Amino acid sequence: MAKKSAIARDLKRKKMIIQYAAKRAELKAMGDQDGLHKLPRNSSPTRYHNRCNETGRPRAYMRQFGLSRIAFREHAVKGEIPGITKSSW
After folding, report:
1. Where along the chain do its domains lie?
2. How far apart are CA 18 and CA 21, in angstroms?
3. How many angstroms separate the first and last alpha carbons of the chain?
4. What tens digit of pLDDT does each residue of 5-18 get?
């Protein structure tokens, strides 16, 4: 499980991105680089990192399922994800 502070920090970034989205789009349309520079750093969408919904793991994230590879495999082996089976040949 990821540190709770890292998960909280990412949630804070997500909220800030939503809060400043309209203003950021407006400044981009006007081409105002100074105005964009004055916005908080964490309001930039590139600073947000996808995390596993279950464990908060930032790496090996599967966007389609919202899980990391480890959590995905656990659910797949248990048969909790419809249409997913462990391959064998």
Report:
1. 1-49, 51-89
2. 5
3. 33
4. 988 999 999 999 99
Average pLDDT over residues 23-38: 91
Question: What is the pTM (predicted TM-score) of this model?
Answer: 0.73
Q: 51-89 sits in which CATH class? A: few secondary structures
The long-range contacts involving 45-52, CB below 8 angstroms and separated by at least 24 positions, are 45/17, 47/13, 47/17, 48/10, 48/13, 48/14, 48/17, 49/10, 51/2, 51/7, 51/10, 52/2
8 Å CB contact between 45 and 17: yes
Query: Above pLDDT 70, what percent of the chain?
Result: 100
3-state secondary structure of 62: strand
Query: Structure tokens of 85?
Result: 């089976």
